[in-house]
TrEMBL record:
Residues 5-125 form the CREG-like beta-barrel domain. GO terms for cellular component: cytoplasm. Pfam families: CREG_beta-barrel. This is CREG-like beta-barrel domain-containing protein.
Length: 130
């Protein structure tokens, strides 16, 4: 699933509430998680992305639809469309696409055969991302 955090650490998604279960379920039950593997950075070499030697970062939180007529809604759309220009051609009205964000509640990191490590949400959100 394509997403962007636009340097905020909070992932934004462009989801439909009619064609895909993720957006539809989020409207009813906002609990969600997103796992991101180090493989996406190109730093795992030939390791399998499922290998514990290839780090994984998981955000557990609330997947919330962002109101489109707000500053945050405009920010989310702009960030998503900049990162994924193909979204611009997706039929918003007929397919009910909306911006969602995953608000972090818990974070953990699996790194190189070590036990999962919980990370501070406060420190994570306070970090200045690129």
């Amino acid at each position: 699933m394509s997403f962007t955090d636009a340097g905020t650490g909070v992932p934004y998604f462009y989801l439909t509430t009619t064609l895909d279960p993720t957006g539809n379920f989020a409207v009813k039950d906002e609990r969600a998680s997103c796992a991101i593997t180090e493989k996406q950075l190109g730093t795992c070499g030939i390791q399998d992305p499922q290998s514990p030697g290839c780090s994984k970062f998981t955000i557990i939180g609330k997947l919330i639809m962002v109101q489109t007529n707000t500053t945050e809604g405009a920010f989310g759309e702009s960030a998503l469309f900049s990162s994924h220009p193909q979204f611009l051609g997706w039929p918003k009205r007929t397919h009910a696409f909306d911006v969602f964000k995953l608000v972090p509640v818990r974070l953990f990191l699996v790194n190189n055969f070590k036990p999962p490590r919980r990370l501070s949400v406060k420190k994570y959100l306070g970090y200045k991302f690129l």
